[in-house]
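A quick word before the example. In earlier lectures we treated sequence and structure as two separate objects. From today on, think of them as two lines of the same record. Here is Carbohydrate ABC transporter substrate-binding protein (CUT1 family) written that way.
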Amino acid sequence: MRSIRTPKKKARALAALAGAAMLLTACSGAVSGPEQDGEAAPAPAADESLTLTVYSKFSSREYDVVTKGLNNLKQKFPNIEINHEGNQDDDKLAASIRAGNPPDVAISFYTDNLGTWCDNGSFTDLAPYLERDGIDLNIIPEAVRSYTEYQGQRCAMPMLADVYGFYYNKEMLAEAGISEPPKNTSELFEYTKKLTEFNPDGSIKVAGFLPSMPFYANQAQIWAPNFGATWLDEQGGSNLAGSPEWKEMFRFQQRLVDFYGYENLERFTAGLGDEFSADHAFHRGEVAMMIDGEYRTAFLKDQTPELDYGTAPPPVADSKPDRYGGAFTTGTIIAIPRGAENPGAAWELIKQMSLDTDTLVQLGNGLRNVPSTLPALEDPGLEADEQFQTFLDLFSGGKLLPNPTTVIGDAHLKAVNDFAARWQAGKVPDLDKGLAEVDAQINDALAQKSGGN
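And the structure line, produced from the sequence above:
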């Protein structure tokens, strides 16, 4: 699912997603569906024949894995056919809702659009279905429940999750006399210095750990949980300037940048391979340690099976030792678009894909993502080697932190990552003032949406 993976998500281009946000806004209230009275549409009869159309962004091998999972519904409803249309991004989904011709089921990698989907009615409120069928959402970890609802409204369900942990090259650490991965930022900095190799001209040959943002999975939102940094205050406003945790994170980033030299880092990263290719820097031994999602284990097995690597919880801020064992999480979501032709049958498919243990285990094994319910996580059929087990432990450890669900899509994420890029380049002379400006930018966007614009 590369889900949302923020990586694959990230790779899907922020600019394109900004366009999706505009389409989403245009959808507001535009279409009514058969379940517009707010009641759950009835499930189809076991012998009722119909076709459910499903939009997703899956393609190639992953498309086949997900299609197989979708067709598990035929065990209960043999007369329902599944028309799975892959390579459908959020732009296309929003356009179909606006035009009054949506799919029955929508699968999205990009959870940061969920607040808009819920707020403007593009996704159906699932509360009547959950209540009717007596669904216990406590089988889903709290952090995952958080990123699949908006202001108490559940308009989507999770369909697998991504968790971001720490990868390290065992051979490189051993050669440097390091016996275990770093647990805090002081250790990470010292290990980085030991593991980094420079060429005779001073350029970087091997980077111990890269601080460059945004680069690969080095996104501000992925680092933030390791510092205990959260986004909003109790009133729902951006609170970066008032957060010691954000300041500690950016000061640590700058400390690493200063060690390498900004221009040196820029030259080095410019020559590194694509994030989702065999030329990835970690695959090639050009980076010794990194933060990445669980899906990277599948890439390494397929593209660099000989690499001896380990996984661990991400190192945490020196001031937050209790955060060790926590991580950033996000995931794929599945929902009923407003105006879906077969909402009752769509809900049966959503239950299959988000709550059925056998289906989630099948998908988790096929996509190498983390199942999003605790029963699936504990199922003996779930395949987990030593490296993948780290992510299962992080997921069930109770210390996950997701992005907040807002009506401004990924605008807050883009604002902070843009700031991180300026900060590391030395273009922000005053950290407090710079973060206050980011707060103002985010709060202005929130205020405009809250005002109905």
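Notice the following. The mean pLDDT is 90. We will return to this example when we discuss secondary structure assignment.
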